[in-house]
Every structure is written in structure tokens, then in C-alpha cells.
């Protein structure tokens, strides 16, 4: 890897105006390729981030190519979890600069220093990282340097977090989007060239092999593990060689040990899949990871089914009456066995006892009906109280979600623009607060190309949540014309086979529930 970039002398940069448009205000940080400043657009008054590559590095073909690659990637990818780049130019002394969206927050590295993160919060952060990677990968890039320093977490007013993925400087084109790399000086990813940060590289990347999107997913697993554990997954003492040896010689770690016993099994399984040594054993796409994280977060946010112990049943009146009559009969028989039996009976019970006994016998006969006679065998000693079996009582209905009204407008509004605005609002919201099906429907709603729509529709069918049915049924009703120069072509041609399959799958899921 390249040596650290020397700092720009601040006394010569602070206050400097770049290209007559950007005034440098202060230094924000320094990386492997350049220094990042906070600047102000002179005419718009807008604060921006300006990254400058040092003049002494402009002659380094690899550094220059990375810087240009970052400028291209950040300009091409528009996503709420990626800091967008919008200007690029050359410096008079021979360097170059990149202007990007200025985002404020704390790095994930700083948050990791505070200790373990609750697993639900970790899922929410990781889902947003996966969301950003979905856009990066679909644009044809692999990030390759997804470190805690390159993940920024901003706090919203409502207490939730908004994640930004930064620094696409070492991003490389996916193999599927570019010819196989050749071992030439101008190629960023070649066999034998290691680009990345120790401890945050997939094994194949650390070994200098050509990587694809699944290398980034491995690092999502590392970051997720470290958030839950509050400590690094790999010891840094032995350097890259020791880390790679550890990756290759051990089983993929699951939940950190010791770990919070509330960490669900599905999350532990996902961690093991993400941290698999073999790329083929990892999830296929960042979109799959995002969907699974949201499913785990959402499905386990509900309270478990409550169980209550029913009180013992009230005493049987028939048994009480039988016991009373039996005791009275014993007294009568004892009195009759005396010499003055009749007199003893009258004295011992009194005159009123005879009609009372008759009433008991009559009541017993009335209550017993045709019941079989009680056994003369003494009953075994029974417990004083009878505990009924536990009965499952469904938990109370979930309270309304914070985005229910927005989801309703997205699904059922008759105005296309209203549906799009609602969909964008859901995508801008914290993924942890939006149901997975609603985010997928939102992505489908704002997608403007048929292949993108097909990917979202397939994800909706895979998720199998019947609440997405209205959106899919609306697609089925769309006109088969309206696209092309004269509106003669079907805007949803690539979806026509998928739509009925998806409707059938969601309908079956609804009927099953």
C-alpha cells in the first residue's frame, strides 16, 4: 500500500479560493490520497467537502487513477446513503480536487469505541450500509475499503441514525462490468496487488485476487460483528499475514462470545454466512443482505406470545353435597346402633334434622341424575389446588407504525407523483422504521428502468409479504404502451411474465395467513 500523503500546509490553504468558486474554511481530515477540507461555494453560500490530491502525488499513476475513479463513482451514484460528488477539477500547481456533499456526524470507528451496540441498532446501521452497497454494486463498482472510518453515522432529530458510506477512492469496476484486469501499471485491481485495509478485507482480497461484490459483503459482516461485540474481530498485532491466517484457519464466527443472549439465531446465522471464507457461501447480493437484516430487525421487534396460568376451577357442588350427606348418614347409623336408638336419634339430631336430610338426599339424587355410584374405595390423596394447562393468549396488536400514512399513500394514491413522493420519503427514512416490504415497494415505485423494476419485483416475490399486493396489482393494470419516442412501447415489458407470478405468490401467502 502507498505511504501516507503528506499534509497540505494549512497556512497556504485556509482562505484559498479554488477555481474562483470554493473558499477553503478548515481542514476536516487526511487520507491515503489527499486532504479533505470544508469549503464554501462563493455564489451559493453552500458548505461542501473538498478533497484535494497533493501535487507530489499527481505523478503516481495509481493514486491519480483512484482519485479519478472516486470522482466518477460519486458523481454517477445518487443515493441517500452515499455522499454525492458534483464537481472535479485540476489545481494550478498540478494537483486535483473533488467536491462532494458535506455530511456531518461521527465515524463508526468512534461509535465502536463506546462499547457494544444493541443488536437491533446494529442491524439498522448495517442495513443502511447494505443499502448503499446495493447502489454501488448496481453501478458496477466494488467499494473495497469499507472501514469504520469510511462509515459516517449522523443523528436525526427523532433520535434515529442516518448512515453515509464515504470514500470510493479505491473502488474498482466489477468483473461483470469490465474486461478482465490485465497486469499493467494503470489497472487498479490486478493479481498480486493488495488494495484495502487490514482487518477489513475479505480473504480473497487480502490474498491479492480479483474480487467481486461479495468481498464488500464480507466486510459488512465484520462491521456488524464488531458493533455487537464492541471490539475488533481480528487482532491487529500480527499484521495482515496473521489476520489472513486467522481468516483461513478458523470457522466463520457467529455471535460474539460472550454475547447478549437476546441476539437471535437468524442474526447469528447471517453473520456466519457473511463471514464465510468462500465467497460462494456468502449472500449473493447486498440487496439480499439488506432485506434479511430488515426482516430480522422487524420480525423480532414484536413481543412474544403471552402465557397465563388459569386459576383452579371452583369446587363441584355435587361433590360437596355428597360429602355432607355421607357425614350425616354416618351420624345416623351410629345413633341407631345404641340401645335407645330412636331416642338417641331424636336427641342427637333434633326433629328438624330429618326433613333436612331428606332435602339433601333429594338434591343429591337430582344433581346426580343417572351418574354411576361412587366407588367405595377410598380416593387417593389429591392436591389441594388444580392448575389448569397454560393457554397461549395472543399478544396485543402492534401500535401503528410511524410511516403507516406514507405507506398508505404510496400503495393507494391515484396520483402517480404522490406515490413517488411517498416512496422517496420512505427510502429517506431510517430503514429500521420502515417495513421491508414497504422499502421494496418504494424502490420499485421510483425505479425508472425496466431491469431495475424487475430486480425489485423479484425481491418482493422472494420476501412474500402480501401487503405489497396493491402495488403489484397496479403494475398489472398499467398500459402496455407509453414508452419510446412516440409512446408505442410497453414501459413494463420485462415485467409482464413476473407480475402474475408475483401476484400468485403474494395471494397464496395472504390466504395462508
UniProtKB/TrEMBL annotation:
<dbReference type="GO" id="GO:0004674">
    <property type="term" value="F:protein serine/threonine kinase activity"/>
</dbReference>
<protein>
    <submittedName>
        <fullName>Serine/threonine protein kinase</fullName>
    </submittedName>
</protein>
<dbReference type="Pfam" id="PF00069">
    <property type="entry name" value="Pkinase"/>
</dbReference>
<keyword id="KW-0547">Nucleotide-binding</keyword>
<feature type="domain" description="Protein kinase">
    <location>
        <begin position="22"/>
        <end position="294"/>
    </location>
</feature>
<keyword id="KW-0472">Membrane</keyword>
<dbReference type="InterPro" id="IPR011009">
    <property type="entry name" value="Kinase-like_dom_sf"/>
</dbReference>
<dbReference type="InterPro" id="IPR000719">
    <property type="entry name" value="Prot_kinase_dom"/>
</dbReference>
<keyword id="KW-0808">Transferase</keyword>
<keyword id="KW-0723">Serine/threonine-protein kinase</keyword>
<feature type="binding site">
    <location>
        <position position="51"/>
    </location>
    <ligand>
        <name>ATP</name>
    </ligand>
</feature>
<dbReference type="InterPro" id="IPR017441">
    <property type="entry name" value="Protein_kinase_ATP_BS"/>
</dbReference>
<keyword id="KW-1133">Transmembrane helix</keyword>
<dbReference type="InterPro" id="IPR008266">
    <property type="entry name" value="Tyr_kinase_AS"/>
</dbReference>
<keyword id="KW-0418">Kinase</keyword>
<dbReference type="GO" id="GO:0005524">
    <property type="term" value="F:ATP binding"/>
</dbReference>
<feature type="transmembrane region" description="Helical">
    <location>
        <begin position="345"/>
        <end position="367"/>
    </location>
</feature>
<keyword id="KW-0812">Transmembrane</keyword>
<keyword id="KW-0067">ATP-binding</keyword>
Amino acid at each position: 500500500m502507498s505511504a501516507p500523503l503528506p499534509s497540505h500546509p494549512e497556512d497556504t490553504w485556509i482562505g484559498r479560493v479554488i477555481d474562483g468558486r470554493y473558499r477553503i474554511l478548515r481542514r476536516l481530515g487526511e487520507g491515503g490520497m489527499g486532504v479533505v477540507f470544508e469549503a464554501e461555494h462563493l455564489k451559493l453560500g453552500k458548505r461542501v467537502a473538498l478533497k484535494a490530491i497533493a501535487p507530489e502525488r499527481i505523478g503516481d499513476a495509481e493514486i491519480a487513477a483512484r482519485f479519478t475513479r472516486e470522482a466518477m463513482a460519486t458523481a454517477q451514484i445518487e443515493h441517500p446513503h452515499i455522499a454525492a460528488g458534483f464537481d472535479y477539477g485540476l489545481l494550478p500547481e498540478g494537483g486535483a480536487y473533488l467536491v462532494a456533499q458535506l455530511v456531518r456526524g461521527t465515524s463508526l470507528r468512534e461509535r465502536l469505541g463506546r462499547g457494544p451496540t444493541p443488536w437491533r441498532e446494529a442491524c439498522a446501521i448495517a442495513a443502511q450500509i447494505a443499502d448503499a452497497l446495493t447502489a454501488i454494486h448496481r453501478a458496477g463498482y466494488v467499494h473495497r475499503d469499507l472501514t469504520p472510518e469510511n462509515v459516517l453515522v449522523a443523528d436525526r432529530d427523532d433520535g434515529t441514525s442516518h448512515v453515509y458510506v464515504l470514500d470510493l477512492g479505491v473502488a474498482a469496476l466489477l468483473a461483470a462490468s469490465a474486461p478482465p484486469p490485465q497486469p499493467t501499471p494503470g489497472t487498479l485491481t490486478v493479481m498480486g496487488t493488495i488494495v484495502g485495509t487490514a482487518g477489513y478485507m475479505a480473504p480473497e482480497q487480502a490474498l491479492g485476487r480479483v474480487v467481486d461484490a461479495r468481498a464488500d459483503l464480507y466486510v459488512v459482516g465484520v462491521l456488524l460483528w464488531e458493533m455487537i461485540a464492541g471490539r475488533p474481530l481480528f487482532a491487529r498485532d500480527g499484521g495482515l499475514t496473521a489476520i489472513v491466517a486467522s481468516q483461513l484457519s478458523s470457522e466463520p464466527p457467529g455471535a460474539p462470545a460472550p454475547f447478549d443472549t437476546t441476539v437471535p439465531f437468524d442474526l447469528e446465522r447471517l453473520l456466519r454466512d457473511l463471514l464465510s471464507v468462500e465467497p460462494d457461501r456468502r449472500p449473493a447480493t447486498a440487496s439480499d443482505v439488506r432485506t434479511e437484516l430488515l426482516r430480522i430487525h422487524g420480525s423480532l421487534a414484536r413481543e412474544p406470545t403471552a402465557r397465563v396460568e388459569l386459576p383452579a376451577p371452583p369446587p363441584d357442588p355435587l361433590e360437596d353435597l355428597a360429602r355432607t350427606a355421607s357425614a350425616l348418614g354416618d351420624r345416623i347409623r351410629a345413633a341407631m346402633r345404641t340401645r335407645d336408638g330412636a331416642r338417641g336419634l331424636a336427641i342427637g339430631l333434633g326433629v328438624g334434622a330429618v326433613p333436612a336430610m331428606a332435602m339433601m338426599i333429594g338434591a343429591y339424587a337430582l344433581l346426580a341424575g343417572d351418574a354411576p355410584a361412587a366407588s367405595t374405595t377410598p380416593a387417593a390423596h389429591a392436591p389441594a389446588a388444580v392448575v389448569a394447562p397454560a393457554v397461549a393468549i395472543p399478544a396485543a396488536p402492534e401500535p401503528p407504525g410511524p410511516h403507516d400514512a406514507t405507506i398508505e399513500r404510496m400503495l393507494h394514491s391515484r396520483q402517480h407523483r404522490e406515490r413517488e413522493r411517498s416512496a422517496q420519503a420512505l427510502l429517506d427514512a431510517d430503514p429500521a422504521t420502515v417495513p421491508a416490504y414497504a422499502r421494496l415497494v418504494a424502490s420499485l415505485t421510483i425505479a425508472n428502468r425496466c431491469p431495475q423494476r424487475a430486480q425489485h419485483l423479484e425481491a418482493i416475490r422472494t420476501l412474500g409479504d402480501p401487503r405489497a399486493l396493491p402495488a403489484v396489482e397496479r403494475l398489472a393494470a398499467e398500459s402496455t404502451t407509453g414508452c419510446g419516442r412516440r409512446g408505442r412501447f410497453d414501459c413494463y415489458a420485462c415485467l409482464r411474465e413476473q407480475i402474475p407470478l408475483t401476484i400468485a405468490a403474494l395471494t397464496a401467502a395472504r390466504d395462508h395467513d
